[in-house]
Design goal:
The protein is an alpha/beta fold. It is built from ten helices and 21 strands. The strands form six sheets. The protein has an eight-stranded parallel β-barrel, surrounded by six helices. The protein has a four-stranded antiparallel beta sheet with strand order 11-12-13-20, covered by helices on one side. Helix 8 crosses helix 9 and helix 9 packs parallel to helix 10. The radius of gyration is 23 Å and the shape is globular.
């Protein structure tokens, strides 16, 4: 970024308006952050809502697609993750569970205040494959574009011989097949009706919102027409009357493309892919941290009030050069910045270990998904990464909850790769990517007292397992973040997870 912009941007940032997403996302007021429990089974998600997500203050969970998908085997006989995005019908039958399991999950998660967001795939059905059996037993005739379990036939699809080749042609992107997947025509009233019924079925069963896969590949006006027919959320699950579902749409945009996120924001939020690509460069040390003083719209990002933000997702972590669990030090710092900053509605990824991009979730010899095991230190086993259970991540969810309603203040940087800022008088965070120790007395903005750094450890009773920070009467504290520490950041806040005592 140009240094000529710094004075203007800095003056506009400090004290910038705080954007509260709770009314739109349907999360409880004292909660925040969506976690994507990728490929988890519904009953395992229900367990996780009760034993971990609710106690740690998570606001919601994004689940994998609920609709029946084509069974796809890799050459080694295993199943792939992307089969979940090749739809055979709108039956609620996948490797994650059936309708009964789904309802069990939404009831239990809503009862403990964790909202469920369904990932829906309605841009397309399947591609062509040797096998034509779905997870619910449905079959299809791919050459005839026949999906009798819906039913759909060729009249419900765009032109069968049109494949997307030119992403600079907006009509081609929206009317042609993505990667050979049979492209539904959402302008057709019958297709709209089937999609609306599917969405409303999920709403009736207790979801708080919907993530729309491949929204970029559908016409915004078609989506708007579909959303306008959605029911209000089901009050039997604890939602207030006349509450609209939270809609967030996958619109991949990195700049210089004809299809732009703002075409969709009249109808719902959009996924802001540039957050992951920009913060990757910052926390790998390729772009100075000092420029984060202007983080947000000044970086050509979507407006905060319409942006669903994330560092990685199930697609980008498989080859799009973003930070993932495999680069954990920089990854944890990028997530911490995202959660500490008020820009956007955050979502974090929770993965399984994979070596090959096509690799599906951990499963047994009968192709059943294996449940994560829970270790004594709260981490996962059985092949699951469970980033949301990393201390440095779930502690930052608590940080975000504690600082709700505040602005960015007390910005400090060393002119390069050491920065710090407060969230009003409620939270303070420091980052060091300099390659040398950060050793400064800084203004934290916090009330005087002792605080536990939530990155290096936890608060246990009236002591810290990690670094203790003492804030003086003037709000300053001596802060030290060694160059080669396990984590490149430190964070304290007034919440019960950090504050030992305040005067």
């Amino acid at each position: 970024m140009s240094t000529m912009l710094f004075p203007l941007i800095a003056c506009c940032l400090i004290g910038a308006a705080y954007s509260d997403h709770h009314d739109r996302t349907n999360q409880l007021p004292d909660r925040s952050t969506i976690v994507h429990l990728f490929e988890w089974k519904w009953r395992d998600i229900a367990d996780e809502c009760e034993r971990f997500l609710a106690p740690k203050g998570f606001g919601g969970v994004q689940i994998s697609p609920t609709s029946e998908n084509l069974i796809i085997h890799l050459p080694d006989g295993s199943r792939t993750w992307y089969e979940r995005y090749q739809v055979m019908s709108y039956k609620l039958k996948t490797r994650s569970g059936d309708r009964e399991d789904f309802l069990n999950m939404t009831r239990r998660c809503n009862q403990v205040g964790v909202r469920v967001y369904a990932d829906v795939v309605v841009n397309h059905m399947t591609g062509d494959h040797p096998s034509n059996i779905g997870t619910g037993g449905s079959t299809a005739d791919f050459k005839k574009y026949s999906y009798p379990a819906v039913p759909f036939n060729q009249s419900h699809f765009h032109h069968p011989f049109c494949i997307i080749n030119d992403y600079n042609n907006a009509a081609e992107v929206r009317n042609c097949q993505l990667l050979g997947l049979k492209d539904l025509n959402q302008t057709v009233p019958y297709v709209r009706q089937k999609i609306v019924r599917f969405f409303n079925k999920l709403i009736k069963l207790g979801v708080a919102g919907i993530r729309v896969d491949a929204a970029k590949h559908m016409w915004p006006t078609d989506l708007g027409a579909i959303y306008s027919r959605l029911h209000n959320l089901n009050t039997a699950f604890g939602f207030r009357p006349n509450t609209k579902p939270y809609i967030y749409q996958e619109v991949i945009y990195y700049g210089n493309e004809p299809i732009k996120p703002q075409e969709y924001t009249d109808y719902g939020d959009v996924t802001e892919f540039k957050v992951g690509s920009e913060l990757k460069n910052v926390f790998r040390g390729h772009n100075a941290l000092k420029w984060l003083v202007s983080w947000g719209e000044a970086w050509a990002l979507s407006p905060s009030e319409t942006a669903l933000v994330f560092i990685d997702n199930h697609d980008t972590q498989r080859g799009n050069d973003v930070l993932t669990y495999k680069e954990s030090r920089a990854y944890k710092a990028a997530i911490a910045f995202m959660l500490a900053h008020p820009y956007g509605e955050p979502r974090i990824m929770s993965s399984y270990f994979f070596e090959k991009n096509e690799q599906g979730p951990p499963s047994d010899s009968q192709e059943n998904i294996v449940s994560p095991s829970i270790n004594k230190d709260d981490t996962c086993g059985n092949g699951w990464v469970c980033e949301h259970r990393w201390r440095q991540i779930y502690q930052m969810v608590a940080f975000r909850n504690a600082v709700r309603g505040t602005f960015i203040q007390n910005w400090w940087d060393n002119g390069n790769n050491q920065i710090a800022f407060s969230r009003g008088k409620k939270g303070f965070i420091v980052f060091n990517v300099e390659g040398r120790d950060l050793d400064q007395r800084l203004q934290t903005g916090l009330p005087p007292g002792e605080y536990c750094d939530v990155i290096t450890g936890k608060k246990e009773g009236n002591t810290c397992t990690g670094t203790k920070v003492t804030v003086s009467n003037d709000g300053t504290a001596h802060i030290r973040v060694p160059a080669h520490a396990e984590d490149m950041h430190l964070a304290i806040h007034v919440g019960k997870e950090s504050s030992l005592q305040t005067s």
